[in-house]
Design a protein that fits this description.
about 220 residues, 7-stranded mixed beta sheet
């Protein structure tokens, strides 16, 4: 375990504060996640911070900000994810896919991205975290053809709502759901939902420590 074994360096955020912050955030969001899984989430942040110094995977640099803006932000959608086969489209640095995969070990995840630099990081994170329920795919979403469709298609900061639905339509199982993570309430995007999809709900997400709007758009096939 990276956070359990490594020594704290000068100027580094104390590990105990990150553990406490994560546990507090999970408690506020009423998420029941095993401590072992929570510790591995901090290991993931450690890996992300190290790779970020060289590969610029995210503009967020400080671990305590990563915890709020990446980890807790990703976990805020956990109650809405349909278990089974889940794909994170345009996964980037593994958000929200890796935190969700750690929280849902019985589900199978695919992290899809067309950027080879990012998929190399994802492969390393998968190996370091020993995530057996996760597959990394380097491909364009329009060209990816999985052997089976997905129960949940999730995206975070990925194009417009209509663009996401149109490009991922072939990935969604008949009874599956689309989860689109957004910032402010996406009124204009909701008016442009393409035919074949129906809006189920727009949930306002509360992320502890984050002073910004977060919404989750939930859709399914008509």
């Amino acid at each position: 375990m990276l956070y359990g074994n490594r020594r704290q360096k000068r100027g580094e955020v104390p590990v105990i504060s990150l553990v406490q912050s994560l546990n507090h955030g999970l408690s506020v969001m009423d998420l029941d996640i095993e401590q072992t899984a929570a510790n591995r989430m901090l290991d993931y942040l450690d890996i992300l911070a190290k790779w970020n110094r060289v590969y610029n995977l995210t503009a967020v640099r400080k671990p305590e900000q990563m915890l709020t803006r990446h980890l807790l932000d990703s976990l805020a959608i956990l109650p809405f994810v349909k278990a089974g086969r889940i794909i994170d489209v345009g996964s980037g640095a593994g958000l929200p896919g890796i935190p969700l995969a750690l929280a849902m070990p019985e589900s199978q995840f695919v992290l899809l991205d067309s950027n080879s630099k990012k998929t190399r990081f994802l492969q390393q994170a998968k190996a370091d975290l020993e995530l057996d329920n996760l597959e990394v795919v380097h491909d364009r979403v329009e060209e990816y053809r999985p052997e089976a469709a997905f129960d949940t298609v999730v995206s975070r900061a990925y194009s417009s709502l209509s663009g996401m639905l149109e490009s991922t339509a072939h990935l969604l199982a008949p009874e599956g759901i689309n989860l689109a993570m957004k910032g402010v309430y996406p009124l204009a995007e909701l008016d442009a939902i393409p035919s074949g999809f129906k809006l189920e709900a727009v949930e306002k997400l509360e992320v502890p420590g984050l002073d910004a709007d977060r919404h989750l758009v939930i859709l399914h096939r008509e």
